[in-house]
């Protein structure tokens, strides 16, 4: 997912938590960026946020290439497709036949592909011009909007809105999560479903790893837990219908290739990558990744 080019400066949150209006306190650093936690709702925020220029440097084509370093694109694709098929099956039974489904932060379109193979009509929103073009080539120009969700329009959208909107690993990246959720509310039909996955500060891995938690990254501007994300959803016109712990399909090779990007774990990762046999490196497994999934539907009128 990508973010940020249309905002000209990094807006400081100032003293207020955007969910409960508490006063966030410093608890550490994520790279050069101060990390704060709200004592009221435990939302964690980077403040000040990285500048647009800093985010643009992070979200280049290399951001997507990083999925594919040191292994074949086909292997990464297979892992992501399996993760997304599980996510799809978690809500597919609640959707009408041939549902119109929007993926916000569709990247290179793996989830859109899962929607299409399941008989749905996939749509996507993506800020990266490079990734959006890739999706347009695969799914048609009318199916992909390049930009922010709150500016998105679709000629082919059903008149009463999408049947489902998915935000996988997205809400932690956007500068104003409430604005993104309000936009989703406007684009979703009355009986539609919003499915969010995001890192979970209530996860066991967060308590154990503390500042070493791998979800702490400069491009992650907000860190939610199940409770404060539910409050934010209610504030933006949603009712939460389900919350669960996320599992992803991974291989050791994939984990190692990601870890090589982090200074603290890089040496260990490189060592394991050279000593372990291929069969061990490429075996797929499902595991908790310190993320949560929340399913919500439009609630009371705003
Ligand atoms: Zn708060």
Structure in words:
With 302 residues, this protein is an alpha/beta fold. The protein has 11 helices and 11 strands. A 7-stranded mixed sheet has the order 6-5-4-7-8-11-10. A 4-stranded antiparallel sheet has the order 1-2-3-9, with no helix packed on it. It starts with 24 loop residues before the first strand and ends with a strand. 38% of the residues are buried. The structure holds zinc ion. Zinc ion (ZN) binds at residues 17, 19-20, 22, 38, 40-41, 43.
Observed structural traits:
single chain; 302 residues; alpha/beta; seven-stranded mixed beta sheet; four-stranded antiparallel beta sheet; globular; disordered N terminus; binds zinc ion
Concise description?
The chain is an alpha/beta fold and 302 residues long. The chain has helices at residues 52-58, 61-65, 73-92, 110-117, 129-139, 177-187, 204-209, 226-235, 252-259, 263-275, 278-281; strands at residues 25-30, 33-37, 44-46, 100-104, 121-126, 144-146, 162-168, 188-199, 222-223, 238-251, 284-298.
